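Milestone M4 deliverable, item 7.
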Amino acid sequence: MTATLLDTGPLIAVVDRDDKHHTSCVRLLEELEGPLLLPSTVLIEVGWTINRHMGPTVHAQFLDLVTAEFELVNLLPVDVRRMAELVRLYKDARLDPADVSVVAIAE
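Output delivered:
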């Protein structure tokens, strides 16, 4: 089975019923087979966004979803070194830590 590395945008869409991509993202997550990997950096970014824009009740529901459905992935020192390399390489893009961590973990 293939593992799937999750990112912020689709997870926000899953939680936000008003998001134009809600239905397709929910369907995608339901159809995926194999582990759903959630980088801890993405968990923080999604949690912050949900709490700020949808409130603590929805934030708690998201955390329940995380514990039930996703496998958390923590950064290793090698990932952080790779993140630094990527930030230097793509300095004009001003990559945020969550985005760069997804790339480093995926590699």
